[in-house]
Amino acid sequence: MSVESQPVESLFPRLEALLPKVSKPIQYVGGELNSTVKDWDEATVRWALMYPDAYEVGLPNQGVQILYEILNEMPETLAERTYAVWPDLEALMRAEGVPQFTVDAHRPVRAFDVLGVSFSTELGYTNMLTALDLAGIPLEAADRGDDDPIVLAGGHAAFNPEPIADFLDAAVLGDGEQIAIAITEVIREWKAEGSPGGRDGLLMRLAESGGVYVPKFYDVDYHPDGRIRRVAPNRSGVPWRVHKHTVMDLDEWPYPKKPLVPLAETVHERFSVEIFRGCTRGCRFCQAGMITRPVRERSITTIGDMVEAGVKASGFNEVGLLSLSSADHSEIGDVAKGLADRYEGTNTSLSLPSTRVDAFNIDLANEFSRNGRRSGLTFAPEGGSERMRKVINKMVTEEDLIRTVTTAYTQGWRQVKLYFMCGLPTEEDADVLGIADLARKVIQAGREATGSRDIRCTVSIGGFVPKPHTPFQWAAQADHETVDRRLKALKDTLRGDKEYGRAIGMRYHDGKPSIVEGLLSRGDRRVGAVIRAVWQDGGRFDGWSEHFSFQRWMDAAAKVGVDVDWYTTREREENEVLPWDHLDAGLDREWLWQDWQDAINDVEVEDCRWTPCYDCGVCPSMGTEIQIGPTGRKLLPLTVV
Amino acid sequence: MQRLRVRYAKRGRLRFTSHRDISRAVERAVRRAEVPVAFSAGFSPHPKISYVGAAAPTGVASEAEYLEISVTRQCDPGRLKAALDGSLPPGLDVLDVVEAGSGSLADRLECSAWELRLPGADPALAAVAVARFNAAERIEVERLTKKGMRRFDAREAVLSLTTAEGSGTTAGQATSQSCVILRMVVRHATPAVRPDDVLTGLRLVADFAPPSPPEVTRLAQGPLDVRTGGPVDPFDLDRDTSRGGETGPAGEHVDGDL
Prior knowledge:
Chain A: Residues 265-507 form the Radical SAM core domain. In chain A, 34% of the residues lie in helices and 14% in strands. Chain A has helices at residues 12-16, 55-58, 62-73, 87-96, 125-135, 177-192, 198-208, 287-291, 300-314, 332-342, 362-368, 386-391, 398-410, 429-450, 480-495, 512-521, 528-536, 550-560, 564-568, 589-600, 618-622; strands at residues 45-54, 77-84, 114-118, 150-154, 170-171, 218-222, 228-233, 242-243, 271-274, 276-277, 296-297, 318-322, 349-351, 377-382, 415-422, 456-463, 504-508, 583-584.
């Protein structure tokens, strides 16, 4: 809510003087292919979009790219991007008084109407505080004035924004395409009317719709024992619950059309197309699968058009077909074959980042490696034992896995990567040691099938963190000592294995970061003080092991009187009010509880795409439905001009 | 298979690109421009684009960087220049393209001419420092390289070093201010003597230190012309077919295509 009278000038000349002194200066320069700089004065609503991590991680983010393009396509609207600056530049910016800037036109972030922050993970919270502080925006929403932007959170972590509620003016749940446009129009109208009611007037308009959560319009009361008693609106006109947004026809939203192509190296160097959104496989640990329901496929022809336009506009030599479980697309075979045919001989490779063992087949894999590099194969059994996989509802059997990897080894793959989790509910030491058994069987099968000893398998293990809006939202998180002990036992077992040990690699992190993630995932408003204290103590880039400090988090929690165990390793009762209960992802709370009970009893649930509805609640409460093919259409060869 | 030699510049903000950044940008520009680039054979095919000579360091601008690109069918150098330049971001600019003649381009890049603009530096001090530098026989400097801290002579490779006064808008300064301009010709050697090594040398011999980061530009690279004491255009030999250039037969260029 910029002061219109002041000219907004580029900060670049001041920034440029600092760039020779920092690492990887190109990340701050902007000018990416397909980036957009619009005239400041011709826009009436201006968004700064932030991905709160380093440029190399933030630039490829699909969510930011999609919103950036959609908003810039709107008349009288502009959107620019900003990312977390590394500590070396932060120090120089503070010394020279250079504020947080956008990389597009290097405008000061505080001059924008909205600062939209996309949180894929909770570990970006401290980076948001750095950006706010560098921008000259008060950290706490309560201290902001009419000249400060509306600070708005989105992304998966925004499904429980309570730990950062004090720092946010608003949060949005779910798909951003349509709600970003709607918010833009509300702001435009409010400004055109002369900004009636000031900042709160605008927030009220946004809150009334039921589609934007404004934390300060809700009060949280607590029981004497610390549990939440009630979360309730503190003024009339504000709805009791805020609902998530769901884009129903992905073919109507074929973004990104013009992918950003950076000069700097980034974590994903490819053009990505989301081939469907949502997943109903029902893995109980998976927050993404729960909060993005129902499944909505993009049609094969739209996928083909998007790939064609995107490759042409970017020059990328790899196309990623994204989703939560890409091989589950109803026409994945035709998509793969059609694309491989189209790009025959062009050294354009296709990748399928998330593939389920049971949906994988070798024809598909061969199509994917036809025109490019044959990368390793990655599968995620997630649980080391059959029982564990029943608990988490990852319905993949050992036979499925062995059959699939055997075929892969026979077809010439030499390396298979397997993802697992440690610290799952009901887990015992034996379940984690089961990972070693599985890996041994994989190597054994590979050696038998190929007659070669040149067979490798890497097991990669992450710590499980219970997430809001999942059946495990009530579960006790395993303490980091337990996780570390089990990981060590697994490591010793693999290391001591003379026959297979050398063919098996193991990658893992210690259990401590998961505890902090757990605190932030299921935290309430009282956790905000911890985040602030950590940030004040120098906490930055918590997703980076070289910057993360467990001790800093524990010290900060102790200082502000927050009991980390209470938030993480404590199991919740059915009737406890959870901090996110007033935020509606569409999932029926009773169904989630039932699914949690089923988990404890090793009862599995099928996928509702192929079996009858089991009443998770999403479709009826959100007015949505499953949208899948097949369409029966095929990709035609590209016309050669 | 035809081989083309490309001279390109990195200018302005794009001087902050690293060599790896440029190599990715060129690969993508080649794809967007639909240049029929040749690929290496094998498990993981790579486009045949090779960078010639030592790249100007990150943060240093250049008017004379070189690469060679192999194509699967005959391309007109002029068309390739326009197509590639149009596909590269502004600031990475294609200046010249020739069909490769005989002999190695790398061998021709014997020396570089550099210009350093030192905003706010004292011209009198600079003149003293340059005089002392030129008078010295050997100036040992240290620089952190990939192989750790290395100590080497920064004097011998410097064929000439002069100072002049100038003005110009410089990074960080809203208004133009006077600056010292250093020009030098440096012979390519191992380890390479870079402009920052010469600045280190000036600090060592005369305690001369510019108040803000220098703006460095490589002006040219090429064979050393003993007459002028500076580099000449390394493409002269490719253009001069009478001296053994192996250009393809004329008339083979496909019309309306690269």
